[in-house]
Design brief:
Length: 474
């Protein structure tokens, strides 16, 4: 049987880190088994679902590269199918109309809680029986699933292991509301059945729904899929991950300069392991992933580790891959790369020093944009009168260069040092500040090479003018 998994978000907000991890695990398992992955938008909650959230989820999935083989399906387009099956259950007496008013239910609920009982629907309560008996043809009603009264529901969760729940613990669930809309627990079963889902991977917050859903599968005569419930993600302080901990939306990670590959690698390890391996290419993740190795205990989010992975991928991923995502940040900052070196060359030169694409975009700026001021601290320290001779001699040599190569620029610096009988720093640092505007950069000959002759000459002249002005004001 072909393995088929799904990701089934409710579109009530952006795609958050927890959802993305669930999606990744589902996706990986499908790929690992050579199966298929379905995207389904669970939008039956008409009040809380928005088109904006749907778009945000799709954008997040696309940015992560978690592509789907089928869908996106929308539950709101499948109401006829749910109603058809609800009618079937009604006809088979596996579901029934309940006229019990909301107010009465609330009253009974409070009574049960006051008595220290678990609140649940009690069809045999005299007041409920009376309310149902008093109902007329046009009284509003919900439809409840007739949960079995005897026996237990048993399943082997791929993560949590053997689970057993007595039916006596479960009440008769509403499957259609008064307004005619079917409810989550019913729709999810019909969808997973109709879509041929073989493994349901989802968050632990749904584990209490699973026995109820299994009873609905049985009532419909549908095969029950396997389940894998993933533990929670905690913030670094041990409480459930939330906005308080910083970014939780996947797209915010894009905005903060992470590569999707780094986030995916981070998420795969957040609750799944393969020995103590930390770095996984997509191919490796697919090859090694198994539901059985998902952790039972919650995992804590660690931003430092994510940054470390991001730096790793900025350094080691194909420059073309990094360039694709860097370009977005360059555009955000209005850095036009038309006049200047290839972005991939800048990545190769500057990338390893950067933890995020935002830093990398900032460090790319001087290759493409002229500046009108030097960084104050660096200028104060390195653009001093004593640097004048070094800059002037280097400038003369740069202007005379016939061939613009890193080797020749290296020679320019070495010869300047030799002729002035000064150390490397006395020439290299003023040149670095002159050419980049700042005190830190990769090797200055390589930087000059990529900044280009015209810009290098103009910037050294600007540094000399800066020194002259400083002298005049002294
Ligand atoms: N729509 C549910 C949610 O977003 C997930 C349901 C499921 O995976 O079964 O929490």
């Amino acid at each position: 049987m072909t393995v088929k998994t799904r990701f089934a978000p409710s579109p009530t907000g952006f795609l958050h880190v927890g959802g993305a991890r669930t999606a990744l695990y589902s996706w990986l398992f499908a790929k690992h088994m050579d199966g298929e992955f379905v995207l389904r938008i669970e939008d039956t909650d008409l009040e809380r679902s928005t088109q904006e959230a749907i778009d945000a989820i799709l954008e997040g999935m696309e940015w992560l590269g978690l592509d789907w083989d089928e869908g996106p399906y929308y539950q709101t387009k499948r109401f006829d199918r749910y109603n058809q099956l609800i009618d079937q259950l009604l006809a088979e007496d596996k579901a029934y109309k309940c006229y019990c008013p909301k107010l009465l239910l609330e009253e009974l609920r409070e009574e049960q809680m006051a008595a220290g009982l678990k609140p649940r629907y009690d069809a045999k309560h005299p007041k409920v029986v009376a309310a149902n008996a008093a109902a007329t043809e046009d009284s509003p009603f919900v439809i409840r699933f007739r949960n079995p009264k005897e026996g237990t529901v048993v399943f082997d969760d791929k993560v949590r292991g053997h689970i057993e729940i007595a039916n006596s613990e479960l009440d008769d669930l509403i499957i259609r509301r008064t307004d005619g809309s079917p409810t989550y627990n019913f729709c999810v079963v019909v969808d997973d059945w109709d879509m041929g889902i073989t493994q349901v991977v989802r968050g632990e917050d749904h584990i209490n729904n699973t026995p109820r859903q299994i009873n609905i599968y049985d009532a419909l005569g549908a095969p029950v899929p396997e389940f894998a419930h993933c533990a929670m993600i905690l913030g670094d302080d041990g409480t459930k991950l939330s906005k308080r901990h910083g970014a939780v939306s996947v797209m915010q990670y894009r905005d903060e300069g992470y590569l999707p590959q780094a986030l995916l690698n981070y998420l795969v390890r957040l609750g799944w392991s393969h020995g103590d391996q930390e770095i996984f290419s997509m191919e490796e993740m697919i090859k090694l992933f198994s539901l059985g190795s998902i952790s039972k205990s919650p995992s804590a989010f660690n931003t430092d580790k994510l940054l470390w992975l991001n730096n790793h991928y900025i350094k080691t991923a194909e420059p073309e891959y990094v360039a694709k995502y860097l370009q977005w940040h360059l555009d955000q900052k209005g850095i036009d790369t038309a006049n200047g070196p290839a972005i991939t060359d800048v990545i190769k030169l500057v990338g390893e020093r950067c933890n995020t694409l935002i830093e990398l975009a900032e460090q790319s700026r001087y290759f493409y944009q002229d500046f009108s001021e030097f960084e104050a601290g660096a200028a104060k320290k390195h653009l001093r009168p004593v640097a004048k001779d070094a800059l002037a001699l280097a400038l003369a040599k740069v202007e005379a260069l016939a061939e613009w190569t890193t080797e020749n620029l290296h020679k320019v610096i070495a010869e300047t040092c030799e002729e002035l009988e000064v150390g490397m720093g006395k020439v290299g640092m003023p040149l670095r500040v002159a050419v980049t505007g700042q005190g830190q950069s990769p090797s200055v000959d390589a930087v000059m090479m990529m900044v280009g002759k015209e810009r290098v000459i103009a910037r050294i002249n600007m540094a000399l003018a800066f020194i002259a002005e400083r002298e005049a004001n002294a």
